[in-house]
Fold each of these.
Amino acid sequence: MNEELFEKTPISQAVAKMVIPSILSMLLIIIYNMADIFFVGQTGDANQVAAISLTTPVFLLFIAIGNIFGIGGSSAISRLIGQGDKGKASRIGSFCFYGSIVFGFIMFAVFLFGMNGILRIIGVNEKTIDFARIYLTCVAVGAPFVILSVAFSNIVRSEGAPKEAMVGMMIGTITNIILDPIMILAMDMGVAGAAWATVIGNVVGSIYYIHYLVGKKTLLSIKIQDAKINRPDIVGLFAIGIPASLNNVLMSLSNVLLNNVLNGYAGGEIYIAAMGVAMRAGIFLILIQLGFALGIQPLVGYNYGAQNMERLKKIVQFSFMCTAILGTIFTFVYVLAANPIVKAFIADQAVIEHGVKMLYALIISGPVVGILFVITFALQAMGEVGSSCLLNVSRQGFVFIPLLYIFNATIGLDGVIYSQAIADYISLFMAFGMFVLVIKKATKQTTHSNVACTD
């Protein structure tokens, strides 16, 4: 437990120590996301690439459940440590550990018995259904490990151990990347190879986190007797975790709806494959910004718990500046190199042509989307359930989905591919207003509390 980092280290250094490992972890996720579709793309089969794109929203459901425990647990743990209640923080860690495993087995059962319905929902056609079924069946086997790995990459970071959180993700991702070309190409397993490489990578990552959690460097517990926590703590954890996971659920839903809309055009599988490639290429910018926002969350939560609002505001302001600079730089790089980036994924000329256009549309919000993420994760760290929930459901929910259908009906395909960027700007405007109000309220409460203590 690194209290010096949370309380006294200069802002820029504290942010760097938390954010750099988090960003590196996200870089590994980027490579992992790109690896599957890249190596499947080397088969030259656009239908297999489309199948991976179609199944991505379903895989995001696993990540969503992992985030219920990971982000909800991380927020609670960092605030409790700031308040000095390390015992309760330890017990919440144990609850999240066993909760992740139980929900993993539930998801496995859901996929096992509900596969046909899932395939209909995600919009497969006769060309992609068999590939999608194979991928989802394989990945479902690894659901407990995927959820556990996602959850504890966040929870370990909450006690000031970002390097350990990064190592767990790194081990799993490197395993996946090594296995991808072997299983997809050398063993000629196609999408099944991509799925099994993903499962094995998450198994390896989970084993690392378990090894860390039974060691002496952590205050967290995985003793089953410690998993019993009271109802208010459970409610508080889920009150933050569920809204946070809604981002992934809505990402999943929005991708399903987007794929269904694209499938409605002639040659829909080409548009789906192109959007899949564009989103995989553009995910670099998104996940770098997301990694930054995730990295500062424990700092915000700790200082909020310790009622150090001045340090909290400086952390957030510094993060705004950094994410804006990073976003602008990466957007400029994408504008210059969109064509070769998309070509690196697949050789199909029709997919490349549409993929480049879609990538341009996706990165328009690049300079500001990081600020949106910082605000969202800061509000989660502060335990602001309503505000963080509203932001989580806006970017890819009640803002994006109506825009998708309105633009599809009025503008057509061009409108569809620009829907996400426009939704990002609308959500950012909402986020600023909410954050200003929350900060004013929290600062006023802290001032009154300090005055009362003085009296």
Amino acid sequence: MVYFLNQGYRLAGRIKPPLDRNMRTLLTWLRNLSLCCLSLTGTGVAGQEAATAPTRPNIIFIMTDDQGWGDVGFNGHPVLQTPHLDQLAREGIKLDRFYAAAPVCSPTRASSLTGRHPSRYRIDWAYGGPLPASEVTTATLLREAGYRTALLGKWHLGQLSRTLPQGRRHTPEPARYAPPWERGFDVVFATEGSVPTFNPYYYVDPRGPAQPILEQAAETLGTAHRWPQNYWTGPGRFVDEPLTGDDSALIMDRALEFIRDSREQPFFACIWFHTPHSPIAAGEAWRALYPNRSLAEQHWWGSLSAMDAQVGRLRAELERLGIAEGTILFFCSDNGPSYVHPLGSTSPFRGRKGSLEEGGIRVPALVSWPGGLSGGRVVSEPLSTSDLLPTFLHWAKVAAPRAVHWDGENVTALLAAEGSARERPIFFHSPLRNPNDPWPRPEGFQAAVQWRDFKLLSLDAGATWALYNLDADPGEEIDLSKEAAEVVTTLRAQYDQWRESCLESRAWYDR
């Protein structure tokens, strides 16, 4: 039986679905769930107090673009070389079940800055938005608390110019203008969308698709045509000079400059790499790491190894500056690997970018804080990009606003090994991708609920629902919905209530 409280809802009573002896974990799950209060109004933000470092830590949030679960050495890739991320995984905390809030980039990025599901404010797909000014971001709250803030790399949450077109398909629209310097960031070096991952301002042929860059052997990858995206640094200001070489290195150049200039106060830096989003390209030195491979594979893996080297460069500079102990590094991807080429890895999961199957939303993730979190561990509890705002704020000792509906929760206790489970499920709602182009279908949706080892999934607008035990069945091959019908009923009721809350936010923006 589900009943509602003025602060959310919870389950009452003991539910005993018909389980055989091979499904006892479901019974344990339901008994634990019966004790869970699923608040939708922010109880997870305040959270349990946990030990923190004596002073407020610096926070560096690294996000890659279209990097699949398997596209790192620490998740077992047999070819790809990512030694610096692998070292970070050994020394820090590996997050085995970390989820992007959406299966495409813009909504995930929005969730990571707001702590709220992007459906609440109409960022449903790539190039969705803009991020409304009414949404409070991590950057705004930390800046108000004395942090210096920076956004370096791909923004993708609104247009950066009121007059200059960016990208091939977009013209300036005043209503879509939402630059990072108006969303809490002091220092900006950002593009509106994607650029080539090598020589980011140039490409081969403006009339053709970007993807054939994977077939180009020349390191320059063409210099005759300017890529239709600029790196913006402020209102009306962009870098109008040649930007050559590895794009991840160009972003890290600015990130390290920001860090060196921020010694007098704590800082929050979002380093949002374009790698490995298409157009994918790598310089000759990085392609040489993968001899006897196809040129496309050399570009793909080479760009990822080049990005990995920048993570190592960042860690070395933090050590040199003497601030590594007091700096949090958080690393994740924004969604699963691209659907425009087969190179990304989701192993052992099914699905890719655009899908709420595991391969579309389960992404590689790490966190490290030498002065505040014990390393060398793996956390297997489901976590989400929506959890980042409340967790970052807790670490920074900054209070979060209470008059909004939060979808994320403060997971400090989990990361500090002081708790074993999150308070609430993780809910998903997304359009269905049109298989013939990158844009969503005008009708239908997909939805999912993650709770403990279980996942409820609909890929047909709620007409049918499948239930999976991801611990026993990570490939989502065995549907348990008939054997555990009451579990499905319970999670569907919770999803419906959460969705109703999202629609209320969508209409009123919590005002």
Amino acid sequence: MSDSSDLPVLHAPRSVLVTGGAGFIGSNFLRYAVPRMTEARFVNLDLVTYAGRPENTAHLAETGRYSFVRGDIADPDLVRALFDQHGFTTVVHFAAESHVDRSIMDPMEFVRTNVLGTTVLLDSARKAWRRDDGSFGDVRFHHVSTDEVFGALGPEGLFRASTPYDPRSPYAASKAGSDHLVRAYAHTYGLPVVLSNSSNNYGPFQFPEKLIPLVIRNILRRDPVPVYGKGLNVRDWLFVEDHCSAIERILTRAADRATYLVSGGEERTNIELVHTLIELVDAELDRSPGASRDLIQFVTDRPGHDFRYALDGSPLSNDLGWRPSRDLKQGLRDTVAWYLEHREWLEKADDDRFRSYYQRQYQGR
């Protein structure tokens, strides 16, 4: 990771509210940030829905600077009480319903969490942080978003921070709405905010509804590996710890109201990615090369499936000196190794809720 020692610190977190810290990216961020940001205290607020795992970060309580609260970001009384109790100077907002397929089946929950929940957080921060003269001190709201707000790309080109929004799924639309609300609170009230939109994350602790852990899980079990359509949709992949380092850089060093796109710079078609995972998992399990290729099962494509996402990460590199530390092949090796070493984590995720969803989504829709 690039050195940021020559960049001025524009925000110094002291009391940090992390929303969605029992989820995939949020728990990885806490595991990354708590040991590094030793002057700060952290509160993890998470409702613990199907993909939440508080045990991912339970060990951080040993630092004396971390605590967990089970609760809903859309509950204004709870959120305001936490601001009063902990005197937050910083919000890092991950909490969101995030799976496109689930948003197609149940869009209302995505609007409630991603739009209403974000508004509750913003309004609580505004009321807690705004001084009598209308100014704000050294406080900051970092909103973590997605590349999916921009819509879809053809075979060439990149999304930039200035790209007009064109969300194509209920999930993407709900995240676009939350992005607009964050900027509206900055412009209307002067709330100090920064935003980041990232490409597809992968790595440890990702719930196996997502492509990479799902493929690893199914190869282990010799279950069918579902691939939408012909597997030609393209995504840019970012190792989750690299994303966490980018968030820390933007949170502490970016100018107020800045937006940065966080890109792994690693585009692959879905079928290319699946073939790579089969190669890696088969090698780790001492199976013959390509032994699991016959598990691939092409399934009916997702409605409105965007063809390609890719982000221009050069402003983040040029302005803040950040670059990813892992290429995709190394990141996938590390990810496969983690899941094979933590098979019990996959087993815990494989409960009745997941099995029911999996059967509807890939085997019976």
